[in-house]
Write a structure and sequence with these properties.
The chain has helices at 2-10, 22-28, 38-46, 53-72, 117-128, 159-164, 174-182, 225-232, 235-246, 249-256, 263-278, and strands spanning 75-80, 93-97, 102-107, 136-141, 145-151, 156-158, 196-198, 201-205. By secondary structure, the protein is an alpha+beta fold.
């Protein structure tokens, strides 16, 4: 299904697909050539938090197809987030493309959404195989100007909304804690009840990174040393730490260079990476 969606959206030849999945890709690609846009959101949620290298490869192929839609899709309308009850996000707009795909647009703002932060969080999540930051690009939208454009996750609700509805709200998991610390997302814990989850797959969606990549190594709002150590004492935390070790400065700097992050922000990120790897 995922690889067929990749074909239907991008029109890429099947040789772009990882070899173990090529036969499936070729069998179902034609059937889903005209898949509706909202399928992208459902498939992304289904593959959120890929657990092994094969799943990560599939997740990246799906992300590539979604990124192509976000970059090249023709916009059919723009609405306010309030109209769609999108809670917990600072004044975005919902951009709907002609194929039905929807995305959150946040205008670039020197305070709330500096250039590059939303995309940088996505790119690092992708490199680490975390797969919980929705595909994000920067793009100019007519009438709105330049901003970040992130896949809108259909059916997502805030922790607070789920609690008010009497549904179970899971605790912040170790992988999320380590990732939040690494990227210096100072608002995530303070504003935890406004973080998004999908009701039928209770995994925290790591979105809204306008306050990420804090230029100081430590800051109020980041996970404490105790929280970080506790997260790293778990299998999930150790697995992410291993992937962080493999994502060194020689890869991080070229990854972030096109996004115009300041040297202070990049240096603080590298310092937090070093701290994660120094803990037992």
């Amino acid at each position: 299904m995922v690889l067929a969606l990749f074909a239907s959206i991008t029109g890429q030849a099947s040789e772009r697909c990882p070899p173990p999945f090529r036969a499936v890709f070729e069998q179902v690609a034609v059937a889903l050539r005209n898949a509706p846009g909202n399928l992208a959101s459902r498939e992304w949620v289904r593959n959120m938090g890929a657990a092994n290298q094969r799943e990560i490869a599939v997740s990246r192929a799906l992300d590539d197809s979604i990124l192509k839609r976000l970059r090249e899709g023709a916009v059919s309308r723009v609405t306010t987030a309030d109209d769609l009850a999108a809670e917990g996000i600072n004044q975005p707009r919902i951009v709907t493309f002609e194929d039905g795909t929807r995305a959150l647009f946040k205008p670039i703002d020197s305070r709330r959404n500096p250039s590059g932060l939303e995309v940088a969080a996505y790119e690092i999540s992708r490199e680490l195989g975390v797969g919980r930051v929705p595909p994000t690009i920067e793009r100019s939208v007519d009438g709105l100007g330049m901003g970040s454009l992130q896949l809108f996750i259909e059916g997502a609700k805030t922790r607070n909304a789920l609690r008010q509805a009497g549904k179970a709200v899971p605790a912040l998991d170790p992988e999320a804690i380590v990732f939040i610390y690494l990227i210096g997302e100072m608002d995530a814990l303070h504003n935890l009840d406004n973080q998004l989850l999908v009701t039928d797959q209770p995994i925290l969606i790591l979105a809204d990174h306008g306050l990420a990549f804090h230029p100081e190594i430590e800051s109020i709002g980041l996970p404490t040393d105790l929280q970080l150590q506790s997260a790293l004492d778990t299998d999930a935390g150790q697995d992410l730490a291993m992937r962080i070790r493999l994502l060194g400065e020689s890869r991080l700097r070229p990854l972030l260079a096109p996004l115009h992050l300041s040297e202070e922000r990049i240096s603080a990120l590298l310092a937090r990476r070093k701290k994660i790897l120094s803990l037992p």
